[in-house]
Design goal:
Helices cover 40% and strands 12% of the residues. The protein is of the alpha/beta class and 400 residues long. The longest helix is centred in the C-terminal third of the chain and has 22 residues. The chain starts with 14 loop residues before the first helix and ends with a helix. It comes from Thalassospira permensis NBRC 106175. Keywords: Aminotransferase, Pyridoxal phosphate, Transferase.
Length: 400
């Protein structure tokens, strides 16, 4: 009898974490590697947030908090939704977890029965299908087209809905493509969902503040208030506030769902760190000006990378609205030979070649459910990005 549970055979470890770990190992071994795999800002957590954490420690806020999060934090989250998204929630419609990842996991675990379907537009954030599988659900992956900027269309959504559909996951701006849904695109999706009363929406808005060129961020419950009673609006401080290590995410939705999520959490992590919660109150209630300043830096880096990728032989790259990722196609390199005589057959071969030949770590598109592409995270210094782009260009030119 195997000791490890069967359910683990359904899932795989996160491929993005695997690439980041491999790049870190190579670096530690003295190899000159530029990591473009990590999904985390290179900026530090702002000082006012760190100070709030220090003050919380000194004030002895070191004990258990309510499972759903401290009342102060949930009040700050209610105020955030009102201020930024024009959404009215009450404090008992809010839950706080150990990162956005845990909140999403808890929601799926709390709601999926075996065989329930979750519609996941591809390319997708790597964790949605595996979380669904862990919760005994069935991921229904809808491959989105590059011509549609990798976004699911109303008709593709309509075609994917079945009587077993429980959730559709929307992630805007997207990891891995950076594409964001406009109000009109969300309106069209909402019109489909209004016809299917049993389908719930998981709106993953983790990259809300990372939008460029004046793009207006909107979320589905705001676009169609009638969907609010079956939407879980998910967000967190990790990306916007450069707080990945603090492990704090949150979600808002109907009380019955939030209670179910809290029940799962009460028997697993109980809650995230009391200090992270105190810091996040300051993140949400404190000065917000730096968000725009940082977004401006990310926009410049996006422009730099998109331009450079379009100058590489065999690559083409769309310019997305947000997040800190681009998703170039490497279709034009497939079938070509590396200087060592290896044929590039897949996007995995291509990123392996980039790592081995030039020490650039990126993630293959097949990990995100749409090939042949690769994901570049430009959340790294402009200097490192410039060097990485030069190396990718050289690697592409060396393919015959
Ligand atoms: N959702 C998306 C789309 C993400 O890219 C990530 C992190 O990479 C998360 C959720 C989870 O964020 P957290 O670090 O808060 O768990």
């Amino acid at each position: 009898m195997a000791f490890i549970a069967d359910r683990l055979s359904r899932i795989k470890p996160s491929p993005t974490i695997a690439v980041t770990t491999k790049a870190a190992e190579l670096k530690a071994a003295g190899v000159d590697v530029i990591g473009l795999g990590a999904g985390e800002p290179d900026f530090d957590t702002p000082d006012n947030i760190k100070d709030a954490a220090k003050a919380a420690l000194d004030a002895g806020k070191t004990k258990y908090t309510p499972v759903a999060g401290t009342p102060e934090l949930r009040k700050a989250i209610v105020a955030k939704f009102k201020r930024e998204n024009d959404l009215e929630y009450t404090i008992d419609e809010i839950t706080v977890g150990c990162g956005g990842k845990q909140t999403l996991f808890n929601a799926l675990f709390a709601t999926l029965n075996p065989g329930d379907e979750v519609i996941i537009p591809a390319p997708y954030w790597v964790s949605y299908p595996d979380m669904t599988l862990m919760a005994e659900g069935v991921p229904v992956v809808v491959e989105c087209q590059e011509e549609n900027d990798f976004k699911i269309t109303a008709s593709e959504l309509e075609a994917a809905i079945t009587p077993k559909t429980k959730w559709v996951v929307l992630n805007s701006p997207s990891n891995p493509t950076g594409a964001a849904y406009s109000r009109a695109e969300l309106r069209a999706i909402a019109d489909v969902l209004l016809k299917h009363e049993n389908v719930w929406v998981m709106s993953d808005d983790m990259y809300e503040h990372l939008v460029y060129d004046g793009f207006e961020f909107t979320t589905i419950a705001q676009v169609e208030p009638k969907l609010k009673s079956r939407t879980l609006t998910c967000n967190g401080v990790s990306k916007s506030y450069a707080m990945t290590g603090w492990r704090l995410g949150y979600a808002a939705g109907p009380v019955e769902l939030i209670k179910a999520i809290n029940k799962v959490q009460s028997q697993s992590s109980t809650h995230t760190s009391s200090i992270s919660q105190a810091a996040s109150v300051e993140a949400l209630n404190g000065p917000q000006d730096f968000l725009k300043e940082r977004a401006e830096v990310f926009k410049e880096r996006r422009d730099l990378v998109v331009k450079a990728m379009n100058e590489c032989e065999g690559l083409t790259c769309k310019k997305p609205e947000g997040a800190f990722y681009v998703y170039p196609s490497c279709a034009g390199t497939i079938g070509k030979k590396t200087p060592d005589g290896k044929v590039i057959e897949t996007d995995t071969d291509f990123v392996t070649y980039l790592l081995e030949a030039e020490g650039v770590a990126a993630v293959q598109g097949s990990a995100f459910g749409l090939a042949p592409y690769f994901r570049i995270s430009y959340a790294t210094s402009t200097e490192a990005l410039t060097e990485a782009c030069a190396r990718i260009k050289r690697a592409c030119a060396a393919l015959k």
